[in-house]
Amino acid sequence: MRGSGKPERESALLEIENLHASVEGREILRGIDLRVNVGEVHAVMGPNGSGKSTLAQVIGGHPAYAVTAGSVLYQGKDLLAMKPEERAREGVFLAFQYPVAIRGITNAYFLRSALNAVRKARGQEELGPVEFMDALEDKLKVIGWDDSYLNRPVNDGFSGGEKKRNEILQLAVLEPKLAILDETDSGLDIDALKTVAHTVDKLRRPESATVLVTHYYRILTHITPDFVHVLSGGRIVKSGTKELALELEEKGYDWLREEAAVG
Amino acid sequence: MTAAVDAREHHLALFKAFAGNGAAGSPAWLRDLRGQAIARFAELGFPSTKQEEWRFTSVAPIAETTFALSHGRDAPGVTASALAPYWIAGPGAIRLVFVNGTFAPALSAAAELPRGVRAGSLRAALASDAELAQRHLARHADYQTSPFAALNTAFLSDGAFVYVPAGVELERPIEVVFAVATDGEREALVAHPRTLVIVERGARATVLESYVAPQGGVYWTNAVTEIALAQGARLEHYRIQRESREAYQVATTHATQDRDTVLRLHPVALGAALARHDLRTELAGTGGELILNGLYLLRGRQHADHHTVIDHAQPHCASHEYFNGLLGEQAHGVFNGRIIVRPGAQRTDSKQTNNNLLLSADARADSQPQLEIYADDVKCTHGSTVGPLDETALYYLRSRGLAAETAAGMLTYGFAAEILGRMEHAAVRDELDRVIRGRLADRTRGGRRGAT
Ligand SMILES: Nc1ncnc2c1ncn2[C@@H]1O[C@H](COP(=O)(O)OP(=O)(O)OP(=O)(O)O)[C@@H](O)[C@H]1O
Ligand SMILES: [Mg+2]
Asked: Which residue of A62, A113, A121 is in closest CB contact with B395?
């Protein structure tokens, strides 16, 4: 589904082929093909209910979604054979469209546990509470938070935007190779949006890549995507560059549905 | 039925013996009180599961056991070192220890108290502070409706007495420990410990009650606690129930809150084969605030029943009630939360939640809210949940790199930690945190052992 680019296999971070997935017996993804190379930013757009979050959750390893056909390779390895925690430790990060509240567990404890799980898998030393707080200082600054958010239970009683910021904080702390951001820009104020853009930009290292699921052109003015894909009815019906996003902004999705129906 | 009648006769006979010797020297008003209470117990008898309030909890095991009064029994095995692992409040605490219902000064840690503060034996207070004791005893805990409160009142002889005079802010916590010693006893013992806490105008205190049995065994604790807060008083009250897992505990906690008081109650139930706690607070003055923050953590065949009543008798009061239950193996948790908003109690702000986590397929929880609202300008919400660990939450944690088992452990701990998080005394909170982590780790090991 890529228009052009570097076809060498070793640069591929994520290769999705003919992916079919269903939830509760209903087929949602109906043949997705997508290749994401290191260093790239892909935007995935599409109408409500088209399967964007389903795609993200299948990559994350959500147990409720059953893959019925197709394959997903991550760094050349079978991603679908890996448990969610193994995927995370290998560098896959999914920012949830609806982040989950964890009662009774402070953000600090959660973040440190997650970071240490990932560090351990990478063969790095685990961080104690003090070292962790030191390491966290800069990341907090980036998202404009003080310590108070660290002592609160994870996402419990957080506002919509605060939950999204918390996903960004996790992203910044865990430093994944493949970041999938499911509407992380929705519900964010202008400053927070810039923060997301900044964080994603910083992640734009030669060895990593980002998939942005979004409804809005606005975030793409901060992070220029290499590719824009439109998901509709569980398939990618069109791929292009940033200009496609602008076109969607003006025309909506109906013309694509018609085009897909005809073609 | 005959067993229940026999049991009633048995306790009446015990009372006869008790009234005839040790208790004979008491003041007349106390002898009268005991006499009225035992008469009321004789009328009420033990409750049956046919009574709505006792639908989920059968006290047959208590009624069918022949108990001997623990009062006055020697307990050479209950030493300071045997009790030390059970301290909750840390080295700075004022500690009152009761063994088999009797004050044990040698095991207690007295301290120089601010002028007018009393923290000691109720038996002593009956003589030294007779007027105060008489004014409050049995005025908050109603024995007319409860056979267990009646029985406790009938056998009232010792317990803890805490008095904080007006304006005194007591920094050090007062830790009251009720220990039952079962060693060398051929009969099962029954203890009727009594606690009276009075916090006067504008005063502040932290009080813990702790129920322990270093030697384990079968016995019955039938406890009553009365709490009186005068205008502007603040009390942080912990109740840590760690009875033997073969024991029975029936408890009654009744509090009365005057104007602008803040009461924070933290009942934590970890022990006993069968536990029932009736907890009632009356917001009897405007501007009162109640935090009722409870936890029950059960396993094996443990059964714990919490019946709470929050009585909004006056306007502009707030009550926030949170009870979390963690139920493993075949444990059974019962929660009944009644909230009464009396006519005229406008601007009541009341919130109740009861969440139950079922850690095994055989665990069970029954949760019942009961709202009785007779005023119109009020905000009352309630919610309860019963179920296993949340799949989405588990997945969320795993998607951040945590192993499935770690994620499950974290969610389970979080369920308890949510309650701990509302406890204000840091040393107490930390110690309880340690106790609960230990319990949960123990559970996991037990589970693995069970699987092999
Ligand atoms: N757990 C589930 N149970 C039942 N149906 C589901 C479940 N998850 C997703 N679906 C259905 O699958 C379809 C695709 O949902 P998905 O969340 O992937 O859409 P989306 O493209 O992310 O939409 P949005 O833009 O609104 O976030 C929807 O029709 C949705 O109702
Ligand atoms: Mg979505």
From this structure: A62
